[in-house]
Amino acid sequence: MALSFHTTSRKLSLFSGAAPCRIASRRPQSLVRVSQLPSSSDIGELQHLNNLHNQRAASILSVDVQNDAGGPDYSLVQRNLALELVRVTEAAALAAGRWFGKGDKNAADQAAVDMMRKVLNSVAMDGVVVIGEGEKDEAPMLYCGERIGDGSMFPKVDIAVDPLDGTSLTSQGRNGAISVIAVAEQGSLFDPGPCMYMEKLAVGPQVDPDSVSLDYSVRHNIKWVAKALDKPVSDVTVLMLDRPRHADLIRQCRDAGARIRLISDGDVAGAIEVAKAGAPVDMMMGIGGTPEGVIAACALKCMGGHIQGRLWPRDEKERAAAIARGYDINKILLMDDLVRGDDVFFAATGVSDGDLLRGVRYYSGGASTNSIVMRCKSGTVRFIETYHKWTKPSVTNISLDDSDDSTAMNRRTNGNGSSSSAHHYGGATRGRGAGQRPPW
Question: What integer pLDDT is reported at residue 438 of this predicted model?
Answer without folding.
Answer: 55
